[in-house]
Amino acid sequence: MATQHSRSAARIMMAPAVVLLLGWMLIPLTMTLYFSFKKYLPLRGGDLGWVGFDNYVRFVSSSAFWPSVQTTLIIVGGVLLITVILGVLLAILLDQPLWGQGIVRILVIAPFFVMPTVSALVWKNMFMDPVNGLFAHLWKFFGAQPVEWLSDAPLFSIIMIVSWQWLPFATLILLTAIQSLDSEQLEASEMDGAPPLSRFGYIILPHLSRAITIVVLIQTIFLLAVFAEIFVTTQGSFGTRTLTYLIFQRVLESQNVGLGSAGGVYAIILANIVAIFLMRIVGKNLDS
Amino acid sequence: MARAVTTRRKALNTLIAWSIGLLIFFPILWTILTSFKTEAQAINDPPLFLFFDWTLENYAVVQERSDYMRFLWNSVIIAGGSTVIGILIAVPAAWSMAFVPSKRTKDILLWMLSTKMLPAVGVLYPIYLLFIELGLLDTRVGLTIVLMLINLPIIVWMLYTYFKEIPGEILEAARMDGAALKEEILYILTPMAVPGIASTLLLNIILAWNEAFWTLNLTAAKAAPLTAFIASYSSPEGLFYAKLSAASTMAIAPILILGWFSQKQLVRGLTFGAVK
Q1: pLDDT one-digit tens code per residue, B198-249
Q2: How many domains would you assign to chain A?
Q3: Which domain holds residue B73?
Q4: What is the C-alpha separation between B206 and B86, in angstroms, rounded?
Q5: Which of B27, B120, B240 sits opposite A122 (nearest CB)?
Q6: Are residues B50 and B76 in the same domain?
Q7: Nearest C-alpha neighbor of B156 from the set B233, B231, B95, B81
Q8: What ipTM does this complex have?
Q9: Claim to verify: residue B37 and residue B83 sit in the same structural domain
Q10: Which chain A residues in 89-148 lie under 8 Å from chain B, judged by CB atoms?
Q11: Taking CB atoms and an 8 Å limit, are B227 and A247 in contact across chains?
């Protein structure tokens, strides 16, 4: 009786969250799917009827599509590479005995709490500006010609800004993982005379592999959706138009909703491929 | 992890770690410093680090000219409101999944997580259209609802992992002693759950405060929070470094302070309990 009672109570308690999320998922998703099969131009005639898979074909065959995929991959890959490698090194460093560890950790984590529009604008103006930016001053100090960062090296610049934002996240998670490493194992290997590099390769790295996988998967999902950093710096010009930004432009700027929706469906499929791997790891964790 | 090392080694570690830490923190420090300069000093060649005439003028100008307080208030309402509503909805759900688990609990949790993976841009137009139809565009209510929904999965997950750590035996003991469900929740569960709920609250305020897709796309002048206010500096007129810095400092300061309190929760919350 009691269990029966608490079971139905449990169902009622879960209902609001489940119903809301179900609505949040199904309603817009259905609408996106619906629009993706239509020629729909809100400012130029509205709903112009069903067009089958036309939008899907046109989105992929437009000249902007492959460059945007390439840009997306470069940004996501570049940021992942930088944040994971530097994150592992930083996590190992912060795990060493040192004075003021807590304060250093705070300094390293701080960028994660800076809102994307602020970090992008601060980097764009106060560091990367070819006349008044700090980099320009630094370059001039060494007698070099200042670089027009956002037009000459736009992808590199955006990768740098986004990496600065996400390095704290990778470091923090990898640090948490390192701290769960059995220190006796490390000490034993140290006493057996294992050099630092093989200690790193055979003990630390394998121990971190799961945390690294999680960092990569979670960051990928967020990085695929990078928006504000591009919105306030290059607005998608100079070859910085990612898939997300391209869809945004199709939908809101040129108000070609059918085409943009087809792009949206591609983006959803792409994100889901990454999500499946992440969910598998998280799901395994639930069982144990 | 107290490993014995020589003082020299520790000093070297300290030196390297502090240098890197300061380097990473430098853009924030530079922004804060610049906010106290005059516009002319802000672009001085060579750059001025500490020896300039410190002034609070920029803060006054930003407030006066752009009505900073209104954007701040929008941020507070939207971030705070979405988090509080989210927690009110999530607590019962997480509670029931943690203490009355069924065969489907795991599937429901994973499904909730999967809604978080939905790329926002994929549903941008439908939400935009619904907002127009329902008169929610550029309103704080609309944005609060959307941010509550996008963070709800994280809130449920975080609360679930915290509740899971409360030993079930305590509840059973209370039940045997004749405690009703209401008393069980009020006197036993709540005190044990408060730290977890507080952490969840903190992390989600941070996430909502910094959210910069929906806040940029669904607001105009009226309901714009600080993210959108700062974005308006992307096409400035005249000298503006010091003012940009003052506005930025004001926008990030509250969250920077909250963030430092929530380092541990950050890991748990953003990895959905996969790394603790």
Answers
A1: 888 888 898 899 999 999 999 888 889 999 988 888 876 666 888 899 999 9
A2: 1
A3: 67-270
A4: 14
A5: B27
A6: no
A7: B95
A8: 0.87
A9: no
A10: 90, 93-101, 103-119, 121-127, 132, 134, 137, 141
A11: no
